[in-house]
Design a protein that fits this description.
Elements (H helix, E strand, L loop, with lengths): L13 E7 L7 H13 L5 E7 L11 H4 L3 E2 L5 E2 L2 H9 L8 E3 H13 L10 H17 L4 E6 L9 H14 L4 E9 L1 E2 L4 E2 L2 H12 L6 E6 L5 H11 L6 E5 L7 H7 L2 H9 L9 H11 L5 E8 L9 H14 L2 E8 L6 H8 L4 E4 L8 H14 L3 E4 L1 H13 L5 E3 L8 E6 L14 E9 L4 H6 L3 E8 L1 E3 L7 H4 L1 E6 L6 E6 L5 E4 L14 H10 L2
Parallel strand pairs: 1-6, 1-7, 2-5, 2-6, 7-10, 10-11, 12-13, 12-14, 14-15, 15-23, 16-17
Antiparallel strand pairs: 3-4, 8-9, 17-20, 18-19, 18-21, 21-22, 22-23
Helix pairs in contact: 1-3, 1-9, 5-6, 12-18, 13-14, 14-15
Length: 540
């Protein structure tokens, strides 16, 4: 029996568990974030967490083409992209406690077993693994009114039974009256018979019930709007009251989902179920945001993202959302165009691919594939005065481009050319030999001092900032004295002056690049200054 229930708090933490059924990619993360949004709008303190059954220790070594971007928290945890949704919807900054993968827990259990902490017990999934999961949930939720927990994958996945068992047990530990279980399901539409089928949703709920979990809320995703009979049928066959069922057809924007859940009464339903002392919800600013998103812009600009991971938009999720937030704030439309970095092999090809763009963005990445195309994009921007925003690797290729444009033809990074004669970008001190090791980069929040009277200081409106990092290479200080002759300036540095954090080009409408990842701090209704400044430059 698990014995770590915290009985010292006068007011117990309330838990909302979000699970998925039928298939992946339904939007559990958006659903969890939206529930957090509508609860926070009631004046409640809300935290949120992702439990991922993958046996990886963290998301740092996952292939972005398969799993989407790696999001980084303020304390340096490499996490699943859903934490980006959480932060944007709740306008908060999460920590490593909000991301838990099986590998991390298993590694700790094995370390504890080797150290003799189990005193000779047989270490088992139940109770040891499930207890460790519950520990992680309770630790993350302490001090909040509501703690939302999303379980990755779907009911029935081979990796996930222990996680479902853990949240079932946790209901008994903290009191089932303090828990709400939300199941996200899918309603397929058969065009031949023109009907929406509920059977897959019924089966998914049955699978969840077979694990001892009775869902209190059902969120049903569909491609098209449904009629009232669908909700009644789901209620009858899934055992969930109609008041606890939300139907979510495809939205015009994901930021509309909290308002849709609110309109269908899910916020009030959860508040009553958990007996929360909540205020009347305030959604005015969020409604204003959605109105600005769906409004028809007077002018649309085309921005090219020079990328190497082209399999799906999730690989640069935070970058795209930050660009859009900047466009909404500036009241303009935005067309984001993929530009395959590997296709920019010559200046002629680069010119052909980039000549119709209003602005260029080079996001982060690792490895040599496509790197010459990214350098070519930066060279094109410098030569043709096209607005440029460089993010992490985007700053490094900008330095290389400026050097090559001014006679340093062999300029490169030791990441791509270890034996280059002009390593304008090189490995950070202490990072050599760790190139293939997870969780060892410069990660999380670090301060940056910005030079006064710079373009960067103007868009930030201040000279001292804190930004999130994820990198192993840096600008080589041995070449700083040449920057002026290359037409660039190092306008942002670490407080001790040892690390270049930002560069900008002189006599350019907008050419700013950062070693950090500003996209992680952008919010839909509070755009990051670098992105809003970039979008604003397109209008000039």
């Amino acid at each position: 029996m698990y014995k770590e229930r915290d009985k010292t708090l006068a007011k117990p933490v309330k838990y909302v568990f979000v699970t998925g059924g039928v298939l992946s990619g339904l939007g559990k993360g958006i659903t969890a974030a939206s529930i957090g949004n509508i609860l926070k709008a009631r004046g409640l303190s809300v935290n949120i967490q992702k439990l991922d059954p993958y046996i990886n220790v963290d998301a740092g070594t996952l292939n972005p083409a398969e799993h989407g971007e790696c999001f980084v928290t303020k304390d340096g945890a490499e996490t699943d992209l859903d934490l980006g949704h959480y932060e944007r919807f709740l306008n908060t900054q999460l920590t490593r406690h909000s991301s838990v993968m099986s590998g991390r827990i298993l590694r700790q259990l094995i370390d504890d077993e080797r150290a003799g902490k189990f005193l000779g017990q047989t270490v088992q999934v139940v109770p040891h693994f499930t207890n460790a999961i519950m520990d992680a949930v309770i630790t993350a939720g302490k001090g909040f009114d509501v703690h939302i927990v999303e379980i990755g994958g779907t009911v029935g996945d081979y990796e996930s039974p222990a996680f479902f068992e853990a949240i079932r047990e946790l209901g008994s530990v903290v009191g089932i009256e303090n828990c709400v279980y939300v199941q996200v399901v899918y309603l397929p539409y058969l065009s031949t018979s023109k009907e929406i089928k509920t059977k897959p949703a019924q089966n998914a709920v049955r699978d969840l019930r077979s694990m001892g979990i009775l869902p209190n809320v059902l969120v049903a995703r569909s491609e098209i709007p449904t009629n009232g009979q669908t909700r009644t049928k789901l209620s009858n066959f899934c055992g969930v009251p109609e008041a606890g069922i939300a139907i979510l057809p495809n939205a015009r924007t994901v930021y509309e989902v909290p308002l849709t859940l609110e309109d269908q009464g899910i916020g009030e339903y959860i508040v009553k179920k958990l007996k929360l002392n909540a205020k009347k919800p305030k959604h005015d600013s969020w409604k204003k945001l959605v109105d600005s998103i769906i409004a028809t812009p007077k002018k649309t600009y085309r921005v090219g993202v020079v990328a190497k991971y082209l399999d799906n938009q999730d690989t640069y999720m935070s970058v795209f959302e930050a660009l859009r937030a900047g466009s909404w704030a500036e009241g303009v439309g935005l067309e984001i165009s993929w530009v395959d970095a590997e296709s920019l092999k010559t200046k002629t090809l680069a010119t052909k691919a980039l000549k119709d763009l209003d602005g260029i963005v080079v996001p982060g990445g690792f490895g040599s594939r496509g790197i010459e195309g990214k350098i070519a994009a930066a060279q094109y921007s410098l030569t043709n005065k096209v607005p440029y925003l460089g993010l992490c690797l985007g700053m490094q290729v900008a330095v290389i481009a400026a050097a090559r444009n001014n006679g340093v033809t062999q300029a490169n990074s030791t990441e791509f050319a270890p034996n280059t004669t002009d390593p304008v970008i090189h490995t950070m001190i202490g990072q050599s030999g760790k190139e293939n090791t997870g969780g060892t980069m410069r990660l999380g929040d670090y301060p940056c001092s910005i030079e006064k009277k710079s373009a960067a200081a103007e868009i930030y409106g201040k000279t001292s900032i804190i930004e999130r990092h994820r990198h192993r290479y840096e600008a080589n200080n041995a070449y700083l004295s040449q920057y002026e002759s290359w037409g660039i300036k190092a306008v942002g540095k670490s407080p001790d002056g040892k690390l270049v954090e930002m560069i900008e080009a002189v006599k350019h409408p907008f050419f700013i690049a950062s070693q950090f990842h500003p996209e992680f701090l952008s919010r839909p209704n509070v755009p990051h200054p670098m992105f809003q400044g970039f979008i604003a430059s397109l209008k000039k």
